[in-house]
């Protein structure tokens, strides 16, 4: 029986080289997709934002330098709409992120039980994530119908024995954005629930058994075992939900078109309207670049706060 070649011999070097290249080669498709669909479009958006590019003109693009950014950030003519749209984005994220993460955590705790038929309930709560947002928004448009036969108005009228008068949920500035928040919460909570559920199932059961032996109650086990075990998962879910919140577009476009009076306008909706309704591609590109910088800053801030909290604890 022949002995295996010693490490570093000429016979083992080709195999070691192949193993060194295995990881980069497997990551190459994902890296290529990241470059083609993220880095390259973002670089093109930066390039377009430096020019006056219009779809309704045959003139060659005119170099504007930072003029587009000055107009959307400083100019009184255009900055008002942009800051209002950005404020709507911030308001939407400030409500949706904590509420959706908390609701997803509650659902994950309820569905993390060894009961009969539990996979059916998990599928039921995850189903809205699978359906296209255009379809879901169209269905919810019927629910929010302002007439007396609208589903929500009919249910509230029946529950109050006719005392509730029909309300234009999407036509009133006070209820338009909350209505979109409710739709988004219902549609997106299933994704966060599945991620948190996977994190729950990764917590060792011995920790719960040890806490129960020590006399810890249900709330104490949740604080001492569940939350620390889900720390990384909850941080990831919060970051992803924040990014998705600032990408709000489909619901606004289908339900309200940014109205009434800009109450539901977002930066993405304003950029699309500026590019295709006003034919100003350069200004729309500048808006998307500013939005990217804002989201990147908020993401880095969240990570920094979480890191400081870990160091303190």
UniProtKB/TrEMBL annotation:
UniProt superkingdom: Bacteria
This protein's UniProt keywords: Cell membrane, Membrane, Transmembrane, Transmembrane helix, Transport
Entry-linked PROSITE patterns: ABC_TM1
Residue ranges of every copy of the ABC transmembrane type-1 domain listed in the record: 86-302
Subcellular location: Cell membrane
Membrane topology category: Multi-pass membrane protein
Transmembrane segments: 21-51, 90-111, 123-143, 180-200, 229-249, 284-301
SUPFAM superfamilies the record matches: MetI-like
Claim: Transmembrane is one of the keywords in the record: yes
Entry's family note: Belongs to the binding-protein-dependent transport system permease family.
Annotated protein name in UniProt: Sugar ABC transporter permease
Organism encoding this protein: Nocardiopsis lambiniae
């Amino acid at each position: 029986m022949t002995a295996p070649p010693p490490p570093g011999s000429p016979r083992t070097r080709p195999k070691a080289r192949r193993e060194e290249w295995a990881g980069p080669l497997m990551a190459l498709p994902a890296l290529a997709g990241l470059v083609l669909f993220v880095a390259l479009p973002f670089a093109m958006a930066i390039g377009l934002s430096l020019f006056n590019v219009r779809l309704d003109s045959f003139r060659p693009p005119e170099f504007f330098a930072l003029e587009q950014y000055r107009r959307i950030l400083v100019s009184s003519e255009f900055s008002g709409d942009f800051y209002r749209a950005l404020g709507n984005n911030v308001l939407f994220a400030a409500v949706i992120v904590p509420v959706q993460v908390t609701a997803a955590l509650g659902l994950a705790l309820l569905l993390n039980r060894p009961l009969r038929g539990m996979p059916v309930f998990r599928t039921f709560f995850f189903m809205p994530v699978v359906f296209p947002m255009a379809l879901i928004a169209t269905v919810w448009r019927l629910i929010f119908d302002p007439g007396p036969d609208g589903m929500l108005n009919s249910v509230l009228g029946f529950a109050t024995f006719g005392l509730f008068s029909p309300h234009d949920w999407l036509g009133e500035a006070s209820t338009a954005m909350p209505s979109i928040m409710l739709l988004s919460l219902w549609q997106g909570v299933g994704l966060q629930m599945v991620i948190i559920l996977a994190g729950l199932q990764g917590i060792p059961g011995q920790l719960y058994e040890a806490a129960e032996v020590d006399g810890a109650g249900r709330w104490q086990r949740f604080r001492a075992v569940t939350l620390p075990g889900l720390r990384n998962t909850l941080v990831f879910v919060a970051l992803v939900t924040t990014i998705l919140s600032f990408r709000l577009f489909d619901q606004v476009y289908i339900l309200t078109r940014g109205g009434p009076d800009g109450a539901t306008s977002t930066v993405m909706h304003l950029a699309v309207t500026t590019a295709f309704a006003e034919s100003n591609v350069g200004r729309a590109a500048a808006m998307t670049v500013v939005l990217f910088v804002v989201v990147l800053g908020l993401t880095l801030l969240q990570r920094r706060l979480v890191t400081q909290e870990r160091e303190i604890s």
